[in-house]
Inverse folding.
């Protein structure tokens, strides 16, 4: 199981946060283990970095040390601690790969959960209602977002294994996945030999690594998504979102459900139609994409800060 | 009478449906279904039930003798294991529509996704639009009519029954073969399409079992290697 959602507001007229929460809650029975969203808010000149703190350590002490490391890399504009995450904003000229390397290298158990000029990921173990309580996702603003409710089948239930996943190394690129990438171990071995780092044992993490690798090889995101239909085995409906796009990919056998609705006002994507109806109403047609298809929408609106 | 799904659990809705029918209400509108799963399963008495919008998975599964209308689209496994009755889906149907039905008629006015009518053991499935791959996989009896195009591996490993296709066929499945439709076939098709007011194509192709998989024959080992 697992539930995935995607929403793109074409006109800037819908409250993004409330829509997300309603969609996620409609799919909470598909994924009671954890819930999360990747929201693309107003583009910032700074890099927004969401950091999962080491679990064992005292938070205040850990924050102090992490900020020192981040300062070594670039000026910190501001920081604050919400739930399990330390959110920092650093100078936009900082090399994101170098920043992550330094943070992860110096602090055992730390994980950079998201990084980008507009992307922010929050997630936690438990229900969408719990996510709302901790992070107030209904108040988030932005142009588009993807979200996930997880029912774990292969790997541990904890924050690190929860989705959405940021595609480490690529600012503003996140994925959510429903299904099982069955050639995960093979792909992971190949990528690890080439120096890519994996942060958990969730097979869905390989999607972000794959996209990063294809983008580095010069492919467009749209082409990378399409080529993943050939390179991934197993069952998958997954969504990818970047600062200026939202996309879905559905495996060749259509093993995993996915419903898509597009109107003049929005693009709504959800594992089950009930999420679209509950959050977006009845005045539109929802269609199940054909197996073996990928589609990408570019984000037409810029939300002012 | 009307039943509104809002603020009710699926179990409450289905119980209310069955109780209302038992009390003699034979015409029931179910409002605001909003893509909810398992609506109207196991309806065992004659009644006319209308779902006023899209429904989720397994709608009207295991039912016997009711007439169901879905004024929207339907999710996966709609009408699965139905014994008798009629289900009309105004929009599209998700994967596995009419899987394992034993009798009755399922009408999809729009398109049907993959695996439509798999393992049918009787009854009729009428699709106004196109359908996805492996329609009629391992069907044992009954009739599937696809007015539009059929996807890959059509009627793969079917034992018996018949599939009619008005449009193109991406590929036939193992042991599925084409046969010339008879005059009686054409007449029956026309009657069926008229009965449900579905505009049909000019002509249909007929797909039946080649019967090579009925009995194992060492000389035909290659057929089995592909099929299994």
């Amino acid at each position: 199981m697992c539930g995935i959602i995607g929403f793109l507001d074409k006109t800037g007229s819908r409250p993004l946060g409330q829509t997300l929460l309603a969609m996620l809650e409609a799919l909470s029975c598909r994924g009671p283990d954890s819930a999360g969203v990747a929201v693309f808010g107003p583009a910032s000149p700074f890099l927004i970095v969401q950091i999962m703190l080491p679990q064992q350590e005292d938070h205040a002490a850990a924050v102090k040390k992490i900020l020192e490391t981040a300062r070594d890399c670039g000026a910190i504009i501001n920081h604050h601690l919400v739930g399990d995450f330390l959110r920092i904003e650093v100078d936009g000229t900082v090399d994101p790969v170098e920043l992550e390397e330094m943070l992860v290298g110096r602090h055992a158990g730390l994980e950079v959960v998201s990084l980008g000029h507009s992307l922010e990921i929050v997630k936690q173990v438990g229900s969408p209602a719990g996510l709302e309580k901790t992070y107030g996702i209904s108040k988030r603003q932005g142009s588009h977002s993807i979200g996930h409710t997880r029912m774990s089948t292969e790997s541990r239930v904890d924050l690190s294994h929860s989705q959405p996943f940021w595609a480490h190394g690529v600012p503003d690129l996140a994925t959510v996945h429903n299904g099982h990438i069955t050639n995960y171990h093979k792909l992971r071995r190949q990528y690890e030999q080439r120096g890519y780092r994996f942060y958990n044992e969730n097979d869905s993490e390989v999607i972000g690594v794959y996209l990063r690798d294809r983008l580095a090889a010069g492919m467009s995101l749209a082409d990378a998504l399409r080529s993943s239909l050939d390179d991934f085995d197993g069952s998958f409906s997954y969504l990818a979102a970047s600062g200026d796009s939202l996309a879905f990919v559905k495996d060749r056998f259509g093993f995993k459900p996915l419903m898509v609705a597009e109107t003049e006002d929005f693009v709504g994507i959800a594992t089950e139609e009930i999420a679209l109806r509950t959050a977006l109403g009845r005045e539109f047609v929802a269609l199940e994409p054909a197996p073996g298809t990928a589609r990408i929408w570019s984000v037409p609106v810029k939300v002012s800060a | 009478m009307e039943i509104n799904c809002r603020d009710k659990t699926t179990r409450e809705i289905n119980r209310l449906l069955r109780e209302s029918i038992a009390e003699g209400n034979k015409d029931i509108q179910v409002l605001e279904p909003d893509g909810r799963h398992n609506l109207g399963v196991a309806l065992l008495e004659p009644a006319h039930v209308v779902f006023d919008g899209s429904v989720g998975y397994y709608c009207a599964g295991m039912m016997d003798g009711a007439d169901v209308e879905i004024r929207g689209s339907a999710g996966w496994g709609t009408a699965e294991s139905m014994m008798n009755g009629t289900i009309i889906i105004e929009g599209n149907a998700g994967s596995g529509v009419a899987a394992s039905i034993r009798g009755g008629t399922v009408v999809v006015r729009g398109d049907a996704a993959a695996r439509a009518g798999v393992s049918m053991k009787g009854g009729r499935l009428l699709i106004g639009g196109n359908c996805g791959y492996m329609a009629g996989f391992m069907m044992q009896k009954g009739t599937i009519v696809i007015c539009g195009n059929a996807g890959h591996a059509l009627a793969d490993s079917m034992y018996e029954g018949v599939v009619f296709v008005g449009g193109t066929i991406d590929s036939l499945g193992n042991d599925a073969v084409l046969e010339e439709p008879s005059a009686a076939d054409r007449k029956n098709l026309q009657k069926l399409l008229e009965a449900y007011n579905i505009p049909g194509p000019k002509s249909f192709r007929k797909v039946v079992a080649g019967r090579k998989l009925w009995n194992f024959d060492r000389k035909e080992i290659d057929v089995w290697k592909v099929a299994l």
The radius of gyration of chain A is 18 Å. The first helix of chain A runs from residue 16 to 26. Chain A has two domains: 3-43+124-298, 45-117.
